[in-house]
Amino acid sequence: MRRRQLLMALALGALSAPVLMGQAGSGAPALNDLARGAGRLWGAAVSSAQLDDPNLRRLLLAQVGLIVAENEMKWETLQPQPGVFRFTAADRLLDFAERHGLAMRGHTLVWHRQVPAWLRQLEGRALERAMATHIQTVMGRYRGRLDSWDVVNEPIADDGTGLRSSFWLDQLGETYIARALELAHAADPSARLVINEYGLEGDAPKSARKRQRFLALLRDLRRRGVPLHAVGLQAHLHAHGGGPTTFDQLPAFLQAIADLDLDILITELDVNDRDLAAPVETRDQKVAAVYGAFLEAVLPQPRLKQLVSWGLSDRDTWLNSAFPRADGQPQRPLPFDADLRRKAATGVIEQSLRRSSGTP
Ligand code: G3I
Questions:
Q1: Residues spanned by the domain of 180
Q2: Which ligand 1 atom sits closest to the C-alpha of 198?
Q3: Is the pTM of this model over 0.90?
Q4: Is residue 128 lining ligand 1, measured as CB closer than 6 Å?
C-alpha cells in the first residue's frame, strides 16, 4: 500500500491489524506497482459481495490495477431469462473499478458453463440469434469501458483432440467461435477480444496436445482475418504431485502465440494445493515455488500484458468448493492468506516481478 494511503488509513484507524501487518510489515511496493515496472498490470477476480469488506477493498486498491468479475458477467447472471438482463452486480463492480481508476476485464460471453437452461435448449438459428442478442446487448452496455472481453471461454477439448463438445459446437458447428468474435467486434470495435483457455501451462502430455490444438485454432482464425487481439491463459496451476509444476515448454508456446501477433494475458492465476499433506508452512513454500517457476517461464515474453490472480485472498478461492482438501483445511492458492496477510507466495511474486523489470 502506498505510504500516503497507509498513513491516511492509520490516521482513520481504518485498517485492521492483518491488513496493516500484511502491508506495513512488508515494506514492499504493491503487486501492480511492480507489474507496471515491467510494463504489465496485476489484477484479481472479485465478487460484488467481496466489495462489502472494507479490508479487502483496501487490499485490492493497494495491490491491483485491474479487476474481473468472478461470476457477475456470466450469462446465467446477466440474462437469466430470454431478454431479461440483470446488470446490477456487474455495474457495481465496474463502477468500483472506474471510481478508483482500475481497469476491468469482461468475463465471459460464450461459454458452455454457467448458462441458463433456456439457452441450452435452443437449436440452430435460434441459438445463433440468442448469441448475437447477448453479445450486442452486453458489449453495447459496456462499450469502451472494459479493457478486454473473454469472448469465447474454454473452446478446446480437455484431451486436446479437437474442439470441446458443447451445445455451442453441436448446434452451430466450429464457426461459432469466429461468429462470436465477429459479433463482439461489431458490438465494440474498441474492445480487446480474447479467447480464454485453461490447461495449457504445464509439461504434461495432455497439456502439450491441448496447446497444439489451441494453436491450430488461433492460426486458422488469424488466417481468416477473424477479429482477435489476445489469448487468455487461465493458469490454474497445481502444487500437488499430479499437476504441472514445471513449465519448460511454456516459453515456446507463448512465442508461437506472439508470432501470430496476439497479446498474452494470464487471466485466472492460482496454485491448487489440495493434495499437499504438509503443514501450512511447507504447503506455502511449495505453492510459492510453483508461482516462481511459472513467472520465470512467462515474464520474459514481451507480449505478456497482464497477470490476473483468480482472487487476491485465500478466503475467497473457488478451489475450496471445487477441490476441497481431504483434511478439511482450506486451500492456500492465492497471493494473500485468508487474513489478508502476506505469504511466501507474495514475496516470490514480488521478487519475480521486480527481477523482470530489471529492478534489483
Ligand atoms: O448463485 C448461486 C447461488 O444462488 C446458490 O445459493 C449457490 C449455492 O448453490 O450457488 C451459487 O452459484 C455458484 C456460482 O459460482 C456463484 O457463486 C455455483 O454454485 C458455483 O459452482 C460457481 O462456481 C464458479 C465456477 O467458475 C463455476 O463454473 C466459481 O465461483 C468461479 O470462480 C469459477 O470461475 C471459473 C471461470 O469463470 C472460468 N475458468 C474456470 C474458473 C474456475 O471454474
A1: 2-357
A2: 39
A3: yes
A4: no
